[in-house]
Amino acid sequence: MSAQIESLLQLCREKGLKLRTAESCTAGAIAADIASVSGASDVLDRGWITYSDSAKSEMLNVDPELIIEHGAVSRRVVLKMAEGGSSDSALCVAVSGIAGPSGGSDEKPVGTVWVAVAGGRYTSVAKHHLFSGDRAAVQQQVVTCAISMLIDQMEKG
């Protein structure tokens, strides 16, 4: 994983971008993994742990009605989280999901996660995933996915 993070950091340096995270189901694990790589301090700008619906609204300006209408684990909400955390000079990756072992439903089973990236000159993107395994395994898969999505967005632009 550290080689992938080093690639991400180098891409950010080359493009003059900072990184931000807006995390729900990973509770800061994405930012922690990025920060575990030496030299991350010149790229990693800030992060929000927005585990509750009210935190998503208060910290990232997600409309509470959007959460009521679509649920916190939805494409529209995770896009708003990423957009609320981003800027012209900073990409934000946002995640919201159900890591389990409880909390799932027929419509949104355990392992359901949305990941979004927004900011800079890039088009906002969100992807739905259904990960498997226990809580820790789901969270680690989300972290890996989030890092990959950040790299993919920068390589496209």
Briefly characterize the structure.
This protein has helices spanning 2-15, 29-35, 53-60, 64-70, 75-85, 135-156; strands at 18-23, 44-49, 90-97, 112-119, 122-130.
For the sheet with most strands, the description reads: 5 strands, mixed
Low-confidence stretches: none
Categorize the overall geometry. Answer: globular
Give me the secondary-structure category.
alpha/beta
What is the level 1 CATH name?
Alpha Beta
Report the span from N to C terminus: 23 Å
In total, the number of domains comes to 1
What oligomeric state is this?
single chain
The count of helical stretches stands at: 6
CATH topology-level name: Maf protein
Average of pLDDT: 97
Going by CATH, the homologous superfamily would be: CinA-like
Tell me the strand percentage band.
15-25%
SSE pattern, N- to C-terminal: HEHEHHHEEEH
Total count of strands = 5
Rg over CA atoms, rounded to whole Å, is 14 Å
Fraction of residues in helices? 40-55%
